[in-house]
Each structure stands twice: as structure tokens, then as C-alpha cells.
Amino acid sequence: MAKEQVYQDWQKAARNVGKAADVLQLFLDERFTPETRFQSVQEQAFKLLNTKDLTSVCRYLSNQKQTADEAYWQHLDAETTLRRGLLRSLFCCLRIEGADQTQRLAQALNQARLDLKSQRKLSEASLDWRLPQKHLRPLLLNKDGNLNKARFEWYLYLQIPDRLQGQLLMPDVIKYRALEADLVQSQRWKRDKKELTEATAQAKLMADPTSLIPSLTTELNMRLHEVSSYLEKTDNRDVILRNKGGKRYWRLPAASKKHLVNNPFFEQMRSVEIADVLRVVDRDTGFLDDFEHVQGMSSKSRLFEVDLLAILIANATNQGIYGIAEISDRSYEQLRTIQANYLRLETLNNANDRINNATAKLLIFQHYYIQEGIVHVSADGQKFEARRETFRTRYSSKYCGPHRQDH
Question: Nearest CA to 168 among 69, 99, 90, 108?
């Protein structure tokens, strides 16, 4: 918006250069005698160009464009309702604390919050002139040289979003509170350390570090030796071996993104339709029988099997029955009727239970245990950006860029 405003102002000034010449012509007009008051000449000039346009032409002639920052703050001046209404109400609900480098800013924010809640305007105590950067200070001043309280209030609001990644903290908001708020109090940790570690059911956390670390080091060195020996003796085309300085090194080849997407390995597999996979699961579990009619009518003919599969795929892929009807031979009216009659929370739970019970009976199921004797579940496909680094967070540039996310 600010850049567009500057461009339009510059173009308008260029168009008004001709009128500015008429303004200059007034100084050569013989009608104005030495006794003529300057105010009358000024009135004639403003009839040709108003104050704003004349100022813009002066900048144009002196090659001084109005900066985007000036246009930006002028736009904020016009957003009085947004500042006094929505933003101020939200700001007064926030309790903000500062980190080591933002104590002064947090103090100004809290003082401003108290002022706005009590008297609906900023007091002199919240106007810290040392906070704004040097290039911003002239933009926060009135024509008389005093600090513009409305712009300073905008300035305080604008400091919050970019500093919520650790510089400013909100004790009442889980996402933005301090790390210490999620940790066990030091007194309790010293007193109940053994009980707390045992409650995690993590064998390595309960182990003595003096014996655990050497054993892990030994295990790692053995694995490195085994892998190196395997690569040395085996013709492994997926590893690059190099001889540097009398020592041999190996590394994985750096494949391009195109190669990763169109890897020849996947071309060896025959593609299978999702509907066919569901039919195999139904053959082994009979989960479609759990989708009973809402009125209790039972039928063993399975007249609506294809429609049910289409509805399940439509909802699972976020296509919806309208979208699946557009790309298939099933009608929307038919799918809508069957979905209303057969798909309910009860029938979905029964079908899921049947599939889960059948999966748990497979021999391979026990090999997916993370901990012995403890069953873990996951919601595959759901990724959320994580604020802190924990043992559950991993990188996923595809979904979260360079940030960590929690699975």
C-alpha cells in the first residue's frame, strides 16, 4: 500500500508541474504591487493547487520522493477505529513479559496496557523515547516536535508479533510462555527426581549416565565398524567411496529433487487403486457390514458397497461427496442419501474397531512397539510446528520449511 501510494503521489506531482508553473507566474504578475499582502498571493496560489498537491510538486521538483515509511504511517493515522477498537481491546487482554534483551520494551508494553485500561490513553510513563530506532523517531513526532501518542501506540503494537519467538513472552498463552513454565520446578525436581524419571517409563532416562554413555558409545562404534566393513566388501552402488589422504571415506550420493520424485525404485511397483485396497481390507475384516442403516434395516445384498467406498474415499481425501461425484460416475443425490443413512459416529467407530482389532492380530504388529509392553498410537499426516526442540520433534521442510514440527 505504501509503495503504491508513493508511486501515485509521484505520478500526480508530474501531472501538476504545469499548474505549478502558473503558481510561479503569480510572482511575475504586475497586478500585485509591493504593498500587496502575501496572504492574498497565497490564496491565489492555493486556488491553482491545494496545499497537499503543491507540497508534492515541490518534492518532485527537488527530486525527493515521499518515502514508503511516511505513506505507511499516514495510512495508520487513518486507521483510528482499528486501533482504538479491535487492537486496543485485544492488547489490554495480554500480559507480556520480556526476556533479557527486551525488558525495557516489556515494561513499556505493560505500562501502556495499564494506562489504556484505566484512562484509555497513554501516559508519559509509557512513552519511552529510547525504544524506537533512530530512523523511526522523526516519523513518530508531531509538527511541533512532540511525540505523537497515537503513532507511538501503533509502534508498540507493531513490536509484538515479530518478538513472540522468544524475545517477548506471554505467561497466559501456552504457545508463547517461557520454557521454564513447562518444566518441573527445581525444588520438586531435586526432591522427586527418582519418582519423576520412573514415571516416564523410559529405561535410558532411569539409567545411570556414567554407565549409559560409555555403553552407547561402544554400541555406536561397533555399528560404524560393521557398516564400514559391509560397504568395503560389498558392491554398493548407492554409496560413494573416496580415498583421501590415505584414508577411505564414504558418503551417500546427493540426488536431485527430480530424481527423488521419479525414483526408478517406485517404477517397479504396480499401482493399486485405493478402492481395491479397501475391498481387500473388507474381504479380510468385513468392516463394511458395520455401516448399518439409521433405521435399523439390515440387508446382506450390499447394494451400496461401491457408494460406501466412494463416500469413504471422498471424506478421507477432503474431496467431499460433491467433489467425488464430479469426477466419477456416482450421482451426488445418491451419495448424499447413503451418507446420511449409513455414516454416523457409531458406525465409523465400529468399523475402525474391527480394522484395528484385525491389525493387532497380525504377526508383524508387535514389531512396531516403541517400548515393550506399551501400545503407542499416532495420527498420521498431522504435522504441527514445534516451538521447542524435544525428543519427538523432527524436521520436515516439505510442510514446515526450516522449522521443527511435532508428529
Answer: 99
Q: d(Cα 65, Cα 3) in Å, to the nearest integer?
A: 11
Cβ(122)–Cβ(112) below 8 Å: yes
Inter-residue long-range contacts of 81-86, CB under 8 Å, 24+ positions, other chains counted? 83/150, 83/153, 83/154, 83/157
CB 121 within 8 A of CB 148: no
Q: Could you give the CA distance from residue 245 to residue 33 in angstroms, rounded to a whole number?
A: 95
What's the Cα-to-Cα distance from 31 to each of 20, 27, 40, 43, 50, rounded to whole Å?
A: 19, 10, 12, 14, 22
Contact 287, 308 (CB under 8 A): no
Per-residue pLDDT of the chain (407 residues; tens, 9 = 90+): 767 776 677 677 777 777 777 777 777 666 777 767 777 777 777 777 777 777 777 776 666 666 777 878 888 888 899 999 899 999 999 899 988 888 999 999 999 999 999 988 898 888 888 888 888 888 898 888 888 999 999 999 999 988 888 889 888 887 888 888 878 888 898 999 888 888 887 888 888 889 999 999 999 999 988 888 887 777 667 777 777 777 777 777 766 656 656 667 777 888 889 999 999 999 999 999 999 888 876 655 677 889 999 999 999 988 889 999 998 888 999 999 999 999 999 999 999 999 999 998 998 887 777 766 676 776 666 666 776 666 666 666 665 555 444 44
The three grid cell numbers given for residue 72, joined into one nine-digit string:
505507511
63 CB-contact burial (10 Å; exposed 0-12 / middle 13-18 / buried 19+): exposed
Query: Please, which residues bridge with residue 244 across strands?
Result: 247
